[in-house]
Amino acid sequence: MKNLNYLIFSIFFCVVTSFLVLTILVTPAYALNYNNRTLLEVDFSNQDLTDSSFDHANLRGSNFSNSNLQGVRLFSANLAGVNFEGANLAYADLESARMTRTNFTNAVLEGAFVTNGKFDGAIINGADFTDVILRPTIQAMLCEIATGTNPTTGRKTRETLFCD
């Protein structure tokens, strides 16, 4: 009987300990809400911000290089001078965002919503715009500066913009 009680206690202790360790070590990634915030020159590089929201945020000069921003909302955000080099912006909402002098070098924007975005002075070397719907005037402007091949997708920037 003594051995049986010890065995039951040992099993119970192992189960509870395992549960606590997994709860502490395996915390889920939650989408963050940065709506309407002023976050000037903040370093968000190399982070997983999947499905986070930055609607109407002022992110001027911030760094999102090599971050996973898939499905992120940047609706009407100020992205002037932001660094998105190597970032995954697939299916992101960049509608009405101000992207003046923004660096999209080698970024993946596949399927992003950018219809009313402003790209004055943007750097798009190696960016992938597959399935991104742009106004014809913005598309023509981007085609004038489009160069390179995206190292992640292997697609040429000019081809993803339908320049040729």
Please describe the structure with a list of short key phrases separated by commas or semicolons:
mainly alpha, single chain, 164 residues, 0% strand, Pectate Lyase C-like, elongated
SSE order and pairing:
Elements: H1 2-25, H2 136-145, H3 157-160
Report on the architecture of this protein.
The chain is mostly helical and 164 residues long. It has a single domain (28-164), classed as Pectate Lyase C-like (3 Solenoid), CATH 2.160.20. The chain contains three helices and no strands. It has helices at residues 2-25, 136-145, 157-160. The N and C termini lie far apart (82 Å).
In short, what is this structure?
The chain has helices at 2-25, 136-145, 157-160.
pLDDT averaged over residues: 89
Largest sheet: none
CATH topology heading: Pectate Lyase C-like
Give the helix tally.
3
Q: Which residues form runs of ≥5 with pLDDT under 50?
A: none
| Quaternary structure classification | single chain
- Name the CATH class: Mainly Beta
Could you spell the SSE succession in H and E letters? Answer: HHH
Sheet-strand content, in percent, reads: under 5%
Distance between the termini: 82 Å
Overall shape: it is elongated
**Alpha-beta classification:** mainly alpha
CATH superfamily: E3 ubiquitin-protein ligase SopA
Helix content: 10-25%
Gyration radius, in Å: 22 Å
For the record, the count of structural domains works out to: 1
Number of strands: 0
